[in-house]
Amino acid sequence: MNNNELKRIIEQVSRDRGIDKMVLIGTLEEAIRSAVKRKYGMSENFEVTYNDETGEIDVFQFKEVVEEVTESDTQISLSEAKKLDPESSLGEELGVKLDTADFGRIAAQSAKQVIIQRMKDAERDLIFDDYKDRVGEIISGLVQRVDKGNIVINLGRAEALLPSSEQIPRETYYRRGDRLRALVIDAKLVSRGPQIILSRTHPDFLSALFAAEVPEIAEGIVKIVSVAREPGSRAKISVTTEDSDIDPVGACVGMRGSRVQGVVQELKGEKIDIIPYNPDIAHYVAGALAPAVVIRVVVEEAARSLEVVVPDEQLSLAIGRKGQNVRLASRLVGWRIDVKSESKYQRGLKDGYQSLIRLPGVSETMADALFEAGYGSAREVAEADAAAMAETLSVDAAKVEQVREAARLYLENLAEEDAMEEAREQMAKEIMALPSTSESEDEPAEEPAETPEPEAEREEE
Q: Which of 217, 219, 275, 447 has the smallest C-beta neighbourhood within 10 Å, fewest atoms?
């Protein structure tokens, strides 16, 4: 292979494979360096360089100029050095050019193997760099094979893996050659090459599908706030917009449901609820629990907890089958949700008010004031912040402490009564478990003792 041909091959491979020419030159130099070591058994006293202008490879072996040579691999006599460089002197390093044509078949094969491997490595790095920047995007490929439930997808330049854990339940009917869309969730570089992991269950897959179907989302006019999914069954998505002329829910649904139907078909019939986002958490959760109607929402900011009251006949609708509706709503809003029927809520209010009436030293007027201020039970009074209660009721700190102490005393007495009742129940159970004290049918009764005869009767005899 002449120099011009080597130069042409490097340029062609760089152009066809998209590999930087300097990477190939570095690979070629490394291959020649490996061949030199194999042929001559040299250590590191040589240098390989490629001249990009001429396409020539130069190999120089460095030797020390000495009077008398004792190590031919690392030393050269002064007389020989003068022939190569008249200005040579003792003790300096002199580069002796080697003939690369003498490497032979083994050296050439070694160089070829190194070049091929480096080209594969470079191509692998290019693929990895491409897909690591595409995490969060939807890609499409052909099903290549199914391996232990995991689906291998052919993306053209690379292969991707759709693990069984990232597949929609019951979606196992893909065959070789079927086209499949999924979300890139990870890209790793392993010894075998780039490993691209896909998902069809990730919430972001639903978001990306809507972005593909709804131009307003792709353009950023409508924004997806939150997504909650139970893949293959049901999903909830909340949307919002700053443009008052646009209905974010209507934009996602599309004319006669055309846009949302496109997403539903891709997800093989997964039901999707589209909900308008509201910064007011009470209104937000009311929409999230649709189609159930919400009567009242009690918000506990500190615990990020919501008590939601619905009509008695809609309790099952609000909770959903196996709790699915309330579970998805909780994930969507990011708060814990406790759904109660209206009748149960009213009973709770009544019981809580009665506990306030029973507080020792607390008048009915004060109990009413506490209840109206939002302190619905003795426990809430005992656990309330004293300063906040004083400000809410417009009373002094001493009065607040008196009321809170009464609540604590009431709860302590209630706990004692509960403990005593529990102890009585336990004692009754133990007594019932004791064996019966009545005579057993298996044991005969004792013979009665003989009655002695009267003294008078014995004297007559």
A: 447
